[in-house]
Amino acid sequence: MGKSMSKRRQDLAELFIGIAIIGLLLFVASFARARIDLTSEQRYTLTPATKQLVRELEDILYVKVFLTGELPADLKQLERAVRDVLDELHAVNPDRIHYAFSDPNASADDKTRREVYDQLQKQGLTYTSIRVKEKGGFSERIVFPGALISFRDKTLPVQLLKTQLRTPDADIVARSITNAEYEFASGIRQATSKQKARIAFLDGHGELGALETADITNALEALYSVSRVRIDGRIDALSTKNELMSKRTNDYEALIIAKPDSVFSDRDRYVIDQFVMNGGKILWCVDAMDPQLDSLRKSQFSIATSLALGYDELLFAYGARVNKDLVLDRSCAFIELYTQPYGNQRKLERFPWYFEPVSIPQSAHPIVANIDPVHFRFVSTIDTIGTDSVKKTILLTTSPQSFAQREPVRISLAAVEMDQGFERRSTPHMPVAVLLEGRFKSAYYDRIPNAFRDDPNVAVREWSPPTAQLVIADGDVIANRFDPAKGMFYMLGYDRYANAKIYGNRELILNAMNYLLDDRSLISIRSRAITLRQLDATRVDLQRETWQAINIGVPLLLALVLGFAYQQHRRRTNTRPNPISA
Fold it and tell me: What's the pLDDT at 361?
């Protein structure tokens, strides 16, 4: 009896000592932080650019997320991804990053909820309407998949689910999960930046208007100061001459030339050239051909002729030439046309429209890495010119089954039903977007009169410092669809037939401006590729009960087996004879 009590006290002592050791280890571990990401694409690891951004915070930054509460499975997955990102941000700088989640639908009072909705919309957040399945059927619920970032006296909205559709689908949610780190990094950058780089859209040569570029303008304004400028022959339209300096200083860091359709005067070309010579960056979205769309709408065909706008000599001097041709590509968008009538009604059908190529990025360059296919309308090809001081990088090309027609080009709606002979006449991978980087030689290097050159107010430069330009041989690549009657516009990359944004035009332009303005950190974050392994919805429906039974039954069975084995072990141990007593 005494030995049995002694043995029991010994077992209890060992148990309490073990519990104490575990408690001590947990207490010590609470002061040490170790995080290991075992995913192949490092899904739960922030990029070095984001870590640096967070470490450099000078004050407390508070994030309030409104994506929480009763949500469908897809949005719950997005909520978890947002929590993971915020956890990582907090781990990098726990003294500066604080966050909380708030459910806008938490109040049972309908009036209070509507007041919360109105307040969030005033602060810049957009709601999403979702259908929730309940016992009596379906109900509509308002969700705000966004956050507010507060830093000192600034409060900025961050939209975590970016779509113009009120009801998000699984693909949109998956893309939002991939972009979660970028959205927060971009928001933190906006909230903490003291001075924004300046971008100007060029006007005065028939360029795209404010409504036609409204979406990309809004997107750029989140990061930069965006305005519109006319040159009108003024030497000081893009730069300023300080009396204390021998050279002119650009008023803008970058210039966007979006689909001009009228001639550039020689003086305007000179001002643009000197903008480059002063280190300015330019995004060229230009057409070499006029497709005569009015004729195409009226008579079902048109003749595309070349545009002689005068900017060609600038691009040639910088190392690129936009050819006077149009691309036909088997990888293309669709067009809806009426076919032969069936009975008393004409039938509307979709056909591949070869004059609107869809380019799937193949380059690993950060401007185009991991973006969706880019949609072009009446795009031309680009040749690069041998200039030793400029590096040329081809970013986008046509598909393997494509060819270019030289001017004049007959454009007919009947082409959708014709055999274009892509198999026998294709020229694969023709460049349509080229990046130029280096030191550019002025297009007016040996053409400037001495009197003009010697004018100190003009301050001519013949070579640029290291800078960059991007040439895209399509003006419509930056144009969003819009409704002039309603004064509304659609997101850049929106497809009217799919009723969704499916093209990567928006990301292409944003990445291009980030790159040109040396915001390489934002590109490195955006270009991350996170693979989301989604379940097969069909198999889930067919095998739901089987997997539920396995998930419930297997752990119970395993527990019973282990319990039985333990009991058998105890029984054999207790019945074993004691050699000392024997």
Answer: 92
pLDDT value, residue 416: 86
- The partner residues of 328 in beta bridges, in order of sequence, read 403
Hey, is 520 helix, strand or coil? Answer: helix
pTM score over 0.85: no
Structure tokens at 65: 């997320």
Q: What does pLDDT average to in each consecutive run of 10 residues of the chain (582 residues)?
A: 63 74 74 57 73 90 92 86 92 93 89 91 84 65 90 89 59 79 86 88 96 94 92 93 84 97 94 96 97 84 92 95 96 86 71 94 87 94 92 96 94 88 92 96 84 77 94 97 87 88 92 84 62 57 76 81 72 62 48
Supply angle C-alpha 483, 163, 286, rounded to 5: 55
Using the structure block, give the residue that is written with the tokens 């509509």. Answer: 140
Secondary structure tally for the chain: helices H, strands E: 15, 29
Phi, psi of 434 (to 5 degrees): -130, 135
* Domain covering 48-188 assigned CATH 3.40.30 in the classification: yes
**Coil/strand/helix, residue 165:** coil
In 3D, which of 524, 523, 510, 520 has the Cα closest to residue 45?
Answer: 524
131 bridge partner residues: 140
Q: Where are the beta strands (DSSP E) in 441-574?
A: 467-472, 482-483, 488-489, 494-495, 500-501
Asked, as a colleague might, if the bond just before 408 is cis with ω within 30 of 0, I would say yes
Q: Which two tokens stand for residue 417?
A: 């039903």
List, in order, residues 6 or more apart from 566 with CB less than 8 Å away. none
Q: What is the pLDDT of residue 107?
A: 86
Q: Return the pLDDT at 343.
A: 57
d(CA 280, CA 517): 9
Q: What pLDDT sits at residue 143? A: 87
CB neighbourhood size of 246 (10 A): 8
On whether the CB atoms of residues 550 and 210 are closer than 8 A, the answer is: no
Rounded CA separation 507/530 (Å): 17
The predicted pLDDT at position 453 comes to 73
Q: Provide the pLDDT for residue 164.
A: 47
Spans of all domains in the chain:
6-35, 48-188, 198-516, 541-565
Buried b (16+ CB within 10 A) or exposed e, 14-34: eeeeeeeeeeeeeeeeeeeee
Task: Specify the pLDDT at position 39.
Answer: 57
Give the Cα separation of 528 and 183 in Å (integer). Answer: 13
Gap between the Cα atoms of 107 and 116, Å rounded: 9
Ramachandran sector of residue 282 (left: φ over 0; alpha: ψ -120 to 50; beta: rest): beta
What confidence score (pLDDT) does residue 136 get? 60
How are strands ordered across the β-sheet holding 332-338?
Answer: 332-338, 348-359, 374-375
Beta bridge partners of 403: 328
Q: Residue 479 phi/psi, 5° resolution?
A: -95, 130
Q: Which residue has the tokens 């409504």?
A: 211
Between CA 54 and CA 92 the distance in angstroms is 7
Q: What is the dihedral of CA 341, 342, 347, 350, to 10 degrees?
A: -100
Structure tokens at 534: 């989604």
Q: What pLDDT, on a 0 to 100 scale, did the predictor assign at position 234?
A: 93
Residue with tokens 């396995």, as numbered in its chain: 550
Neighbours of 238 (CB within 10 A): 22
